Amino acid sequence: MHDITNTSKRLNESLHLPVLVIIEPLLLPRTCILNVLRRELDDLEILDMATVQSLDSTSARDVRLVVLSIAEKPIGDPSVEDDLAFVAECCPNAAVAVLSNHDDEPTVQAAMQRGVRGFLSTSLSIEIAIAGLRLVLVGGVYRPLPVAGTNRMVDLEPSDTRGLAPAYLMNEGVRVAIDRSVTDLTPREQQVLAELELGLPNKLIAAKLNLSESTVKMHIQHIMRKCAAHNRTEAVLRWRGRLPAQSRDHDPGTAPMLEN
Known about the structure:
This protein has helices spanning 2-14, 27-40, 78-90, 105-113, 126-137, 187-197, 202-209, 213-226, 232-239, and strands at residues 19-23, 45-49, 63-71, 95-100, 118-121, 140-144, 153-158, 167-170, 176-178. It is built from 9 helices and 9 strands. It folds into 2 domains: 2-175, 3-Layer(aba) Sandwich (Rossmann fold), CATH 3.40.50.2300; 182-260, Arc Repressor Mutant, subunit A (Orthogonal Bundle).
């Protein structure tokens, strides 16, 4: 009896979670992606589908992101165009990301012109792909960007980048270089902010930057104060220009809430 009650409770709770949908025709890669996303994005309900037509079953759900696998197909392929149109019709409030075997600039540009908010190449590491999805989920845009002197890099940018230079992230997810004018943040705070943009928790940021967790928390507190933000996500979005700056005349002795 208790098992039935608990199962019913979990099902009811899942129906109220925001939803991410992965659409991949092939069962094996779809299952692998599904398992990874459920482990990494546990605050979302992850659904997998073989075709976009199955999105009809999500009409009553809060779908935040649809990841559409197009494999070798070009963005301009009629079937891809139809799928994108169907996603927009079924999930008008959801962002769309595509998973493609290509990452050339014409393909990426064509995807962006069609309203795609995330472009994931199958050549990306899983860490970078997850970081890209996290960015899209908080309102940003994730797309590959060729950079002179490097083989393969990706660009993490908000949907409105007027006046801002992009932040570049190496494909292996190890080295970050911020190419923008920075006056308010110290070099170490810039490094911490770059890791926040990836959605990393304090423990991983500390390990990557060889800092203690308490030092990371201190840097995040300073970043949030300088950005007039109440949490780390708001700090990232405001620093990247998506949110208007609020008054900074708040009590400097009051520490903003820190997320782990």
